[in-house]
Request: fold
Amino acid sequence: MDARKQIVRDAYDKIAERYLKWSAPSQVRTHYLDKFRTLLQDGADVLELGCGAGIPVTRTLTQRAHVTAVDISPAQAALALKNAPAALIVCADMMALEFPPDSFDAVCAFYAITHLPREEHGEMFRRIAKWLKPGGTFLASLGVFETDGRTEDWHGAPNYFSHPTADESLRLLESAGLVVAEQEIARQDLKGEEDLPFLWVVARKTAR
Ligand SMILES: C[S@@+](CC[C@H](N)C(=O)[O-])C[C@H]1O[C@@H](n2cnc3c(N)ncnc32)[C@H](O)[C@@H]1O
Reply:
């Protein structure tokens, strides 16, 4: 495995429970989870990338959708199995996934693509566009400022973050065939020094 992805996997294996407690009060995530949920028809097929511990996102989505949820960290995938038993949980690098074209009505990624080496973001968006049914929805939080590197301590473990600017992410989405319908740069509402802004996007695969 790519050394940068090993850093991410090992970090979440170590901090899974701590991250869960820290992130629980996030109102911006709740806002976008509610928005995503209302865009789904009952029985929709949904792919969630970087599902973490499976709460609140995975478990909430399983109330109305068939959810395939993916995480690179075995500890996170094990928690997701427990917390969202109705979902199909896959422990894998999201870049290693293979699905037939037009497999999903919607794809979401909450705070996960910002861990993927930034040279992979464009290809990830192209694959998401391929896996979505025409007219399908992609919702994600992406980076705002350009960054690429390891942090020595994030909640008690080294971690790795990588993303282009918000403008470049928007360009990559459009060139992958995902039309951005909504975009917002929103700060977290979590207490403490980690009050980072994210670019939130709702994009659609153009209907054929
Ligand atoms: C910040 S956490 C977010 C978890 C959850 N989506 C949430 O909103 O709380 C990022 C998650 O993405 C996962 N992740 C990071 N890189 C990944 C990759 N290449 N493939 C699959 N999962 C990945 C991590 O293991 C971690 O559980």
In short: Residues 3-205 form a domain with the Rossmann fold fold (CATH 3.40.50.150). The mean pLDDT is 95. The beta strands are 44-49, 65-71, 88-91, 104-109, 132-142, 147-151, 159-163, 178-187, 197-205. The chain has six helices and nine strands.
